[in-house]
Design goal:
The complex is a heterodimer of chains A (581) and B (432). Chain A is mostly helical and 581 residues long. The radius of gyration of chain A is 25 Å and the shape is globular. In chain A, 50% of the residues are buried. Among the domains of chain B are: 36 residues, Monooxygenase (Up-down Bundle); 133 residues, Ribonuclease Inhibitor (Leucine-rich repeat, LRR (right-handed beta-alpha superhelix)), CATH 3.80.10.10. Helices cover 39% and strands 16% of the residues of chain B. In chain B, helix 3 crosses helix 5 and helix 4 packs antiparallel against helix 5. The longest helix of chain B is centred in the N-terminal third of the chain and has 19 residues. The chains are: A mainly alpha (581), B alpha/beta (432). At the A-B interface, helix 14, helix 17, helix 19, helix 20 and helix 24 of A face strand 7, strand 8, strand 9, strand 10 and strand 11 of B. Chain A: Its cofactor is FAD. Chain A: InterPro entries: Crypto/Photolyase_FAD-like_sf (IPR036134), Crypto/Photolyase_N_sf (IPR036155), Cryptochr/Photolyase_FAD-bd (IPR005101), Cryptochrome/DNA_photolyase_1 (IPR002081), DNA_photolyase_N (IPR006050), Rossmann-like_a/b/a_fold (IPR014729).
């Protein structure tokens, strides 16, 4: 029998800590090339108990990979049969706020898993329905004794999983959960910060720097491991458990252009190798300054793969670390090397205990700002019809491809919220949720709050100009021409502000503003002037600051970078609690 | 301060047990005792008043329907000195609106008690019109403070000018003791300002009217000429004139404390900005040596020509768009009183020289904010060495600092912290 701590208890009493596996004596992997590595892991597996037959089900949700998958390893550990399932509700697909690119990415990832499992003489079981109805059926049909899945730190995930664990208990099914979606144990970080999540990135980095290194990634599961728990695949497998197509989910695919970002673990690992090679070639492990090229989708970009779990964040972490130590011959890399990973971790930590993290009302860390409600303006922004080519090009790229550079995100987020349109960040967040491949719930909501100056207290004086910022980022204007082809004949001088071009030029370029391309939907100078006043009003109420200084009107969170104080002092009335009257 | 959100319910729940104890002590168990609610009703007015002052308006309103006594207290004039009318339409705002019945009650019973009044409206014209309707009815009032605030798009501008002006003049005429008025982004005009002045010239201390396009320089000059107690003024640059500055500096005038000027352009090259004579500025500063002069610029880069060519006594400068390197150089030369400088964006050339000059010449500088500019790390350290001791606010976006041979991003923060005397980090934005 497996150790007692793996047997499930009521979820609410069960801190994730107790289920985190101890670091195993297995060797770590630097470059993960699938299927070719020895797995000391397999030898460490405890012998199958003589009395009870162990039928495992591993439930894929995120973590769509076979490498560094401790929960899957637990499924195989001493099992007689193993089935890997993914649960999907096609009816829900239509209702959910998920666009076609995200579905396609997910389906490709599932297909990749299926192919990888085929090589191990198994298959992926895609079960249609909702987990609460699917599991009772499967538990009975397959005589399941063990259910394994990766720990989901997001509030909605914790609630869903709590219900499933309870249900499993009722069926006498052992539930085994392992943490592999984040680098660290998030509860530990919170604990080390006086039981509250760090609200500044610097503080977060300080705490993380005091932790032990993240747990080493595990190697992928092997054929040998699978052979020990071989499961017969029925002839009707493809009939019952196949991966749905986009059409089945209700999407029209006639005009769909090929995916710029291919989903799946194989693609992820391939990209990882290229990503590391590029770092070596560039010999620059620091954050590169943005240039025009960065705006386009990169063949070494990894963020969507981290979000879906096609790539393990720990694998990326350790690869970067080893590479740095090899190139720089120094002891430890600076935290800035892991920038992207740590931001992700930061937002996951901030969100894990806050079910209202993705909204303004009822969210203790979110400033209550009197945003405007304007569905027409929101639609123009979402569909790239604002009349500002820089904004429209970015939103077009987002809708077509599913990814935009982080500075592009700053530009459109600022434009929608505190910069120009004064529309709530929640609306922007939902659009990103639909279109953006790497939009984790926590990271997306957190970033929108940050960019709209609704939380984490950013100085709001800095406003991105929809003309100037674009022009400084890409003086050539090629990015605009690529995504807004109707403007391609405009000269650089006017391509960011076509409405200022003389009429003769507009006609010569075959694109008259107001006819072929929309007029600018707002006067930016006016808009930003009003908005800075609004923000000032809101923030001065928070901090009771009545002076003239624009900078001082933002209350700074007094988090020390050194040892934590006894209480995390924030503004006297707490951030943004709206006082209704 | 946090207003107690403890609703009456919780107070009621804790009290009875104490009340029970008191009853048992005072009366024999067999006698019929007064019910707790009657005892509650007999509390002295000033105690109920104190309790009510801790309650939100909603809770107070609910409490007022409990009994006549509490209803009387609810209508005590003291509770109605300060009121903020919130006017929002569900289609345009997430915020709740002040209940129309309550508004009616206030107009009927408390118009004469109101002293500090503000109207918060959303972007819908209806809301602004409702505000004007209320204003028109505040006939018997002695309002001291009036604020018209748009929480989103300025909807007062969509109301018919005639309607707005007539509503506003009701208050101007009837109050006779207005001291503080905020009417930014409204269609107020010269005649209404004349009415304001005619009735309130002795008491007016603060006037904020940025972005009021129907006012002319003559209109505001009239205010400066007559209202000698004026201490704070906010307006747009096109209303600023030499005459205005001189009028604010006459012997009869009190010291001016704050002067805020918004400089906004419509389209590049289409607005011509006049210059203010150096002598007018000097007169102002001579008369009010401690005056804060706050300037907010929302211009295109080409439009900065007329500004800061001569010494200008500005104290707080904000650039809402890109500002040229040259302009920042001029600021270093000609703004000796500068206290705060905030630059939204510049360009792709390092601003080292300009910053260092500002550190040298602007001895009163205590706050600086830079976004979307470029400064080399060495240049930045040089700057902080010179004025770090007096900087209370140093807000630099991380992307601004360019690592060079002397410092990289890791080292810069400790070096700067050293010179500032406290822990400092640049401002960050999430990268994902």
């Amino acid at each position: 029998m497996l150790p007692v701590e793996n047997v499930t208890q009521p979820f609410t009493q069960l801190p994730a800590v107790s289920l985190i596996s101890q670091s195993r004596p297995s060797g770590f992997i630097i470059h993960v090339t699938p299927w070719s590595l020895t797995n000391q892991q397999a030898d460490a597996v405890s012998p199958t108990p003589a009395i009870m037959v162990v039928n495992s089900v591993h439930w894929f949700r995120k973590c769509l990979r076979l490498h560094d998958n401790p929960a899957l390893q637990e499924a195989l550990n001493g099992a007689d049969t193993v089935r890997c399932v993914y649960i999907l509700d096609p009816w829900f697909a239509g209702a959910a706020n998920v666009g076609i690119n995200r579905w396609r990415f997910l389906l490709e990832a599932l297909e990749d898993l299926d192919n990888s499992l085929k090589k191990l003489n198994s298959r992926l079981f895609v079960v249609r329905g909702q987990p609460t109805e699917v599991f009772p059926r499967l538990f009975k049909e397959w005589n399941v004794t063990r259910l394994t899945f990766e720990y989901d730190p997001e509030p909605y995930g914790k609630e869903r999983d709590g219900a499933i664990i309870k249900m499993a208990q009722e069926f006498g099914v052992e539930a085994v959960i392992r943490n592999s979606h984040t680098l660290y144990n998030l509860d530990r970080i919170i604990e080390m910060n006086n039981n509250s999540p760090p609200l500044t990135f610097k503080r977060f980095q300080t705490i993380v720097s005091r932790l032990e290194l993240p747990r080493r990634p595990l190697p992928p599961i092997t054929r040998q491991q699978m052979d020990k728990c071989h499961t017969q695949i029925g002839e009707n497998h493809d009939l019952l458990y196949s991966i749905p197509s986009l059409e089945e989910l209700g999407f029209r695919t006639e005009d769909l252009s090929p995916a710029v970002w291919r989903g799946g673990e194989s693609e992820a690992l391939d990209r990882l190798n290229k990503h590391l090679d590029k770092k070596v070639w560039v010999a620059n492990l620091e954050h590169p300054r943005v240039n025009t090229c960065s705006l386009y989708a990169s063949p070494t970009g990894l963020s969507p793969y981290l979000r879906f779990g096609c790539l393990s964040c720990r694998v990326l972490y350790y690869n970067l670390r080893e590479l740095y130590m090899k190139l720089r011959k120094r002891c430890s890399p600076p935290l800035s090397l892991f920038g992207q990973l740590l931001w992700r971790e930061f937002f996951y930590t901030a969100a894990t205990n806050n079910p209202n993290f993705d909204r303004m009302e009822g969210n203790p860390i979110c400033v209550q700002i009197p945003w405007d409600q304007n569905p027409e303006a929101l639609a123009k922004w979402a569909e790239g019809r604002t009349g500002f080519p820089w904004i429209d090009a970015i939103m077009t790229q987002l809708r077509q491809e599913g990814w935009i550079h982080h500075l592009a995100r700053h530009a459109v987020a600022c434009f929608l919220t505190r910069g120009d349109l004064w529309i709530s960040w929640e609306s922007g967040m939902k659009v990103f949720e639909e279109l953006l491949l790497d939009a984790d719930w926590s990271v997306n909501a957190g970033s929108w709050m940050w960019l709209s100056c609704s939380a984490f207290f950013q100085q709001f004086f800095h406003c991105y100009c929809p003309v100037g910022f674009g022009r400084r980022t890409d003086p050539s204007g090629d990015y605009i021409r690529r995504y807004i082809p109707i403007l391609k004949d405009y000269p650089n001088r006017y391509i960011y502000e076509p409405w200022n071009a003389p009429e003769s030029l507009q006609k010569a370029a075959n694109c008259v503003v107001g006819v072929d391309y929309p007029k600018p939907m707002i006067n930016h100078a006016e808009g930003s002037r009003l908005n800075i006043e609004r923000m000032k009003q809101v923030y001065q109420q928070l901090s009771h600051y009545r002076g003239l200084s624009l900078l001082a009107s933002v209350p700074t969170i007094q988090e020390e970078a050194e040892p934590p104080m006894t209480d995390e002092s924030q503004t006297s009335s707490g951030p943004g609690r709206r006082r209704p009257d | 301060m946090k207003r107690g959100r403890t609703g009456l319910k919780s107070i009621c729940q804790t009290f009875p047990s104490h009340e029970e104890k008191v009853k048992r002590q005072k009366w024999a168990p067999s006698s019929f005792s007064l019910t707790p609610m009657q005892d509650w009703g007999n509390l002295p007015h000033h105690i109920i008043l104190q309790i009510f002052q801790h309650l939100s308006l909603v809770d107070r309103a609910r409490a007022s329907s409990v009994c006549r006594c509490w209803n009387d207290v609810f209508h005590t004039p003291d509770l109605w000195r300060r009121f903020e009318f919130e006017l929002n339409q569900p289609a345009t705002s997430y915020l709740r609106s002040t209940h129309p019945d309550l508004i009616q009650q206030i107009i009927k019973k408390h118009a004469q008690h109101l002293q500090y009044v503000s109207f918060k409206v959303d972007s819908c014209t209806e809301s602004a019109e409702a505000a004007c309707d209320i204003l028109s009815q505040l006939v018997n009032c002695t309002i001291k403070t009036l604020g018209l605030i748009s929480t989103a798009r300025p909807s007062f501008m969509d109301v018919s000018q005639a309607h707005f002006v007539s509503a506003l003049t009701v208050v101007f005429v009837n109050s006779k003791s207005l001291s503080s008025i905020k009417i930014d982004d409204t269609p107020v005009d010269d005649p209404s300002l004349k009415v304001l002045v005619a009735n309130n010239s002795d008491t007016l201390k603060l006037l904020k009217m940025s972005s009021c396009p129907h006012v002319s320089p003559a209109g505001i000059l009239c205010v400066a000429d007559q209202c000698h107690g004026l201490r704070e003024l906010a307006l747009n640059y096109h209303l600023l004139s030499d005459e205005l500055l001189l009028a604010l500096s006459t012997e009869k005038h009190v010291h001016l404390e704050h002067l805020r000027i918004d400089v906004v352009s419509e389209n590049p090259g289409q607005t011509h900005f006049h210059t203010i004579k150096r002598s007018s500025w000097e007169a102002l500063v001579r008369h009010s040596p401690k005056v804060n002069i706050v300037m907010y610029f929302f211009l295109y880069e080409e439009e900065f020509e007329p500004f800061f060519c001569e010494e200008t006594p500005v104290t707080h400068l904000y650039f809402g768009r890109a500002v040229s390197k040259e302009m920042l150089g001029r600021i270093g030369l000609n703004c000796p009183r500068l206290v705060e400088l905030v630059v939204c964006a510049n360009g792709l050339e390092p601003l080292d020289e300009e910053l260092i000059r500002i550190a040298q010449r602007c001895k009163s500088l205590t706050a600086i904010g830079l976004g979307e500019c470029e400064v080399t790390c060495s240049g930045f350290v040089e700057f902080v060495k010179m004025c770090g001791g007096r900087l209370t606010q140093l807000s630099i976006m991380e992307e601004v600092l360019i690592p060079d041979s002397s410092y990289n991003l890791e080292q810069i923060h400790s070096e700067v912290s050293k010179h500032l005397g406290r822990m400092w980090f640049p401002d960050m934005m999430p990268t994902w």
